[in-house]
Amino acid sequence: MSRGDVIIEVKGVTKRFPGVRALDRVDLTIRAGEVHALTGENGSGKSTLARVIAGMHQPDEGQIIVDGAEMRFANPADAIGMGIVMISQELTLAPTLTVAENIFLGRLPKTRFGTINWPQLDLDAVVALDRLDVHVSTRARVADLSVEVRQEVEIARALSSGARLIILDEATSSLSEAATARLLALVRKERDKGTAVLMITHRMPEIYAAASVATVLRDGVLVAEVPLPATRQDKLVRLMVGREILDFYGKRAVAAGETVLEAENLSTLDGTLLPASFTLRRGEILGVAGLVGSGKAELGMTLGGAIASQGVVRIAGRRVRLGEPRHSIAAGIGFVPDDRKASALLLVRSVRENFALAWLDRLARGGILDTRREAREASEAMTRYQVAAGSASVPISTLSGGNQQKVVLGRILARKPSVLVLSEPTRGIDVGAKSQIYRLLQDAADEGAGVIMISSELTELLGIADRIAVFFEGELRGIFDARTTDEATLAHVAVSGARPNQTPDAIKTGVTA
Amino acid sequence: MRGQNDRKAATSDRFGVGPSALSRFVQTPYAGALVSILLVSVYLAASEPVFATWANLMNIIKSNSVVFILALGATYVVISGAIDLSVASLAAACSMVYGLILTAGLPAIPAIVLIVAFGALLGALNGYFIAYLKISFLVVTLGTLSIYQSFALILNSGTSISVYSMAAFKPLYAFVNGSAGPIPMILIFDVALLLILGGALKYTGFGRAVFAIGSNREAARLNGINVPLVIFGVFTIAGVMAGLGALVQAGRLTSAAADVDPTILMTVLAAVLIGGTAFTGGEGGVFGTMIGVLFLGVIQNGLTLSGVSSFWQGMVSGAILIAAVWVGGVRQISRRKKQSVKP
User: Fold this and answer.
1) Residue intervals in chain A for CATH 3.40.50.300
2) Partner A contacted by B331 (CB < 8 A)
3) pLDDT band with cut points at 50, 70 and 90 for residue B17
4) Architecture, CATH, for domain A247-349+414-507
5) Which helix (H) or strand (E) is A98 found in, with range?
6) What is the DSSP letter of B131?
7) How high is the pLDDT of residue B209?
8) pLDDT (tens digit, 9 = 90+) per residue, B211-231?
């Protein structure tokens, strides 16, 4: 296979999920030795397309042609068999095994006796890592490695398995600047060796640093395929957005009321969140930004009572007992955790029971559940929060991510909390559901709740929040007025930890640093 | 397969109703066991005339009552995502204490109350270690399996205590072996327990919390459920049921015995699993457990009536357990596949 040969061709692919058409007759051609950027807003369908190519989703219509022959991938293993490997944010390494074992998992070299040939494994792993210029012990346990190195190990695994097309799904979203640069250098190197790379990202610098062609999706439809760097950045952005951002997030008159939450020197015991102090008003949406490991996730868990912490939190002047979710709930804090599957959903139970989970204390009188009231309130909530499901008695696992999230959010909103704390509430859900969730948050704020929204998407925070707090290495580095700041300023603080006094438009409301 | 499901979905859409009663029944995890009971019963009724007699059927009920009562408690434990390996030993300990307190001259009713309370205490001990000291349920109940068993043996140096001639035993004996007309009292007792525990599971906040914890412990905690307290409660219920089981056993055997039938734990867990309560937690119910107990009971009875050596019975019930859970697993996987439509 030489450069320029078509490796994979996607023709007229349509993929529907309940209530949304994620992809609508999309075409895509990927050639050997090419870095192809697949871009678009969150929810534009770029990840869905990547998942179709990688065999994780099966298209409803259309063809996937590999080396000139139409393929039907039933699962990712089929795609891997054809040399198509996807590397996503959710890493798929076995944490308790070593680097070498992970690289050759499932194809460990064997001796004549059928036992594992450890010296050979070590040697092979060194070769695989050397190819990428990655310097890590082949015998290190993956659990002890940083996210960046884990990602590199995953790439080493993909390449050593003979991958011809590597799909990087938002692979840089949890990486530092330096690590991103390294990854991009690596991508260019592999490209020069003839590997094709499909890079899914909406970050302009990365696109221009590595890609020679970009495909833009919007709402599941192919907007354009443009050459790079010939196409200018402003044109690319226009293609991606294609509409007024304000409509997407919903306009809201800021009418912040009295202070509802005061946090003083709030910190976790393990140092992942250093003492932070801030206040929140009724009707206000406070965005929280920062990289992975910046402490922003811990801030949410602390307020929700999910992890042990110290410091003082007052809701409407009353001190909250920290460290147990039920105390936070009693104090009027509604917490939506970031990992839906791991910490929010009862996957095997019905939609109704998932709603009722947050209302058990109110539905039970003397311990006995009022199941009629439960059924009534659950069906009302399904209507109010626009949950698309066959009925309230289907298992929640049958719903799309967006609808699951509306249940998780709805059951908290229904309690009318004074303070709503949401961690990555729009992660992994489609664009339609996102817009509805923004609407619900705006409504909650309008009705007088203070909202804290923790998110990795700066655009989303700028679109919805009134103020944005930025965390860096566990520390609250500044709180910015969303009307006067921009993505670059926030990203600068999030990545480098620059103090607010180095950025002119900081508002120093309650910042202790 | 896929086409079939699509058609089915299309049909239910067209009529604007959910899945039909039949397909709902097929989806229930104990449907297989229930159908099997009927088939086996029809076969036995035809081949063994004794099988279908009232006396024999009630005999099945009576001889499986202890297993049933223990399995009710075990159902709670398994739904919460744990297993209690100690129930049989716990029951043996209760049984020996019962023998001793009757010997010591305690009257009938206080003795019964005390044994139930003692079962609750031993169960609560399990629960305390698991819920509050956060030791794995396998470790704790494996440990107490030995401890409670050993305790039972120590109490009377391993010999059983005959309570038959004791006056305070008479009311229990009369209850366990008595009947109201043709209905054995023990059947009424079993049904009452079934309704109480089934109702509590379905219609109380506690029951809902048990399901929630078994399904996703962290989600339960984050939504304000006092997880340690519920787990403590679940093991305490298992202890109460073991206490009741010990009393029924004593009533039937007319003695307090320290040596537990080693297969009873296996039978209890098998019944729970065959009844569709998943070892992964969060799913199941006591009605399924009843089906599971009946299924194993009917099979055992059939084998005995057919003159099959009792040595074979373990082989048959073991094979049935594996087959039943396999069938359940296959059904679950096909259901998951059908539902895997999430973006």
Assistant:
1) 6-244, 247-349+414-507
2) no
3) very low
4) 3-Layer(aba) Sandwich (3.40)
5) none
6) I
7) 96
8) 999 999 999 999 999 999 999
Contact B219 A353 (CB under 8 A): no
Q: Which residues of B touch A369 (CB under 8 A)?
A: 203-205, 207-208
d(CA B282, CA A349): 8
Which residues, listed in sequence order, are joined to residue A506 by a DSSP beta bridge?
A: A480
Query: At B18, is the pLDDT very low, low, confident or very high (cuts 50, 70, 90)?
Result: very low
Q: Helix, strand or coil for residue A141?
A: strand
Q: What is the pLDDT of residue B329?
A: 66
**ω into B343 cis (within 30 of 0):** no
Under an 8 A CB cutoff, do A347 and B341 touch? no
Average pLDDT of A112-127? 89
Q: pTM of the predicted model, to two decimals?
A: 0.76
Instruction: Determine the CATH number of domain B60-318.
Output: 1.10.3470
Which residue on chain A is closest to B220 by alpha carbon? A357
* A315: pLDDT strictly greater than 90: yes
Selecting from B202, B209, B222 the residue whose C-beta is nearest the C-beta of A325 gives B222
Res. B32 pLDDT band, cuts 50 70 90: confident
B92 vs A504: CA distance, rounded Å: 76
Interface predicted TM-score (ipTM) over 0.90? no
| CB-nearest partner of B216 from A346, A371, A393 | A346
Instruction: Give CATH for domain A6-244.
Output: 3.40.50.300
CA torsion angle B136 B138 B141 B144 (round to 10): -90
Q: Where are the domains of chain B?
A: 60-318
